[in-house]
Design goal:
24% helix, elongated, alpha+beta, 290 residues, 5 helices, five-stranded mixed β-sheet
C-alpha cells in the first residue's frame, strides 16, 4: 500500500522559499556564497570592460582615417544632379491662377529658399569674387578654414527674384517662375574652365509651341565658374550655390507640360538613362484658368 506524501503547510513552503534566497546556516545568497558572487561579478566586470575598451579602440582607429571636413568616398557623386524649386514629391507644379490657395504654398517655398540670397545677407557674409574663373582656396600645407564663398545676389534673378513683385513670382498672373539649382559636389570643377549654362525645353519637340516663350535669369541661364569648387558644408561656410530661374511667359493653360532643364557643360554628362537627375531635371507644370 503506497504511503501518501505528507503535504507541507503554507508556513513550511514559505520557510523553504526564504531559505532558498538566504540560507543563514551556510550564509548563501541564492545558492552562492559571498566569495562565489564576488568572483562572478569580477569576471563579468573584466569581460565587459575588455569589450568596451576594444570597441573604443576600434572607433578611435577608424576616426583617425576620416577627414572631418571631406567625405572619404564620393564615387557616387561624380556628376551633380539638378533639382527645382518649388519642390514637390512628384515634381509637379499645378495651380489655378484665380485660386490663391492653390499657388500660395509655392510662393512660400520660394520665399524661404531665396531668403539666404538676399543682397544684404550676401554682402555681409560673402565675397564679391572675380567672375569667369574658379574660386580656388588651397590649403598649401596650412588649413585654410573656413573658405570664403562668392556672392550670389537675389537680384540677379530679375523678374523671378520675388522682390517688389505683385505677381508673386508670376503665379498670380499665370506666368510662373521655376528655380533650378545644381546639387553640390565637393571639389568638383564644373565646366572644366569653360562657360556653362542651363537650358529648358519641352520633353517632346511637338509640344514646344504649346510650352511657349521662356526667359532665363541670369541671362541665357549662365552659371559662373566663380562658384566652384565647393569645399564642403563645414569648410565652405555660408556657401550658396548658383541658381538659374526660368519664367514661362506664354504657357498654354489647362494642359500638362512636361519640361526638361539641363546644364550644358563639357564635363557634365546629361544623357545617362540610368540616372535621370544627372545634370538635368524633368518636371511637370500646369496652369489652370477658369
Amino acid at each position: 500500500m503506497a504511503i501518501e506524501k505528507e503535504k507541507k503547510t503554507c508556513g513550511q513552503v514559505m520557510a523553504e522559499w526564504r531559505e532558498s534566497i538566504w540560507n543563514p546556516r551556510t550564509h548563501q545568497f541564492m545558492g552562492r556564497t559571498g566569495s562565489s558572487w564576488a568572483l562572478i561579478l569580477f569576471f563579468y566586470l573584466v569581460f565587459y570592460g575588455f569589450l568596451t575598451a576594444l570597441f573604443t579602440l576600434t572607433m578611435w582607429v577608424m576616426l583617425q582615417t576620416v577627414d572631418p571636413y571631406i567625405p572619404k568616398y564620393q564615387d557616387r557623386l561624380s556628376v551633380p544632379g539638378m533639382m527645382i524649386r518649388p519642390k514637390t514629391d512628384t515634381l509637379d507644379v499645378t495651380f489655378n491662377v484665380s485660386n490663391t490657395e492653390s499657388w500660395d504654398r509655392y510662393v512660400k517655398m520660394l520665399n524661404d529658399f531665396l531668403e539666404p540670397y538676399n543682397d544684404s545677407i550676401q554682402v555681409a557674409t560673402n565675397d564679391a569674387c572675380r567672375p569667369g574663373r574658379y574660386n580656388e582656396q588651397p590649403d598649401n600645407g596650412v588649413l585654410n578654414y573656413p573658405k570664403r564663398a562668392c556672392q550670389f545676389n537675389r537680384t540677379a534673378l530679375g523678374a523671378c527674384s520675388g522682390l517688389n513683385d505683385p505677381t508673386h513670382y508670376g503665379y498670380a498672373d499665370g506666368r510662373p517662375c521655376i528655380l533650378i539649382k545644381m546639387n553640390r559636389v565637393i571639389n568638383f570643377f564644373a565646366g572644366a574652365n569653360q562657360t556653362m549654362n542651363v537650358t529648358c525645353a519641352a520633353k517632346k519637340e511637338e509640344d514646344a509651341q504649346k510650352l511657349g516663350e521662356m526667359v532665363m535669369y541670369p541671362p541665357n541661364g549662365h552659371i559662373d565658374l566663380m562658384y566652384f569648387p565647393y569645399y564642403g558644408k563645414k569648410v565652405h561656410v555660408n556657401y550658396t550655390q548658383p541658381i538659374v530661374a526660368v519664367k514661362f511667359l506664354t504657357l498654354e493653360a489647362n494642359m500638362d507640360h512636361n519640361v526638361e532643364c539641363k546644364i550644358n557643360a563639357v564635363n557634365i554628362a546629361t544623357t545617362d538613362e540610368r540616372d535621370k537627375f544627372a545634370g538635368r531635371v524633368a518636371f511637370k507644370i500646369r496652369v489652370n484658368r477658369d
